Amino acid sequence: MTAEPQHKWTVDEYLAFEEESEIRHELYDGEIFAMSGASPRHNQISWNVVGALAPQIRRGPCRGFAADMRVKIPTTGLYTYPDAGVICGDPQYTDEQPRSLLNPTMIVEILSATSQDFDRGRKFAHYRTIPSLQIYLVVDQGAVHVERYTRQPDGQWILYETDDVTETVELPAIGASLALSDVYERVDDL
Question: For residues 88 and 62, is the Cβ–Cβ distance under 8 A?
């Protein structure tokens, strides 16, 4: 007995499905992947990151976005929902309805035990193909640990990481910084 071939989703099918769905999905290479619900720690860290960045970028050329902003990576075809991010300058979107963002300047992913390998590996490989992306920030929810990947003028990425809650991570491409004490505030209460 042979297995039935799996349905390959078109972009139009995916977008229509996503409009009706109560949960978010990623699309890659004709397959959709349900995104699991976030833990209380994940939600607190997300709230803290957005809350710390918002006042710093509010009056400048950048604007933030939260987890419901879909990003399309044109070179690889991945549609995904980062946990947060920042756009500097005018946002660019696909012509599709609903539209997907094409030009983030910074993307934030909050790691879980199930997502950490993908977020640091294959997903980051997709993100690196976005020409506008300058900072990829990875925040661990299981321990105090932040990784900042910064694109260099030659296209290389440099990693800075810390697990010191007294440190501040500089985010020069968006004119902001994040104190780890702010990122992890009240997380141990959960």
Answer: yes
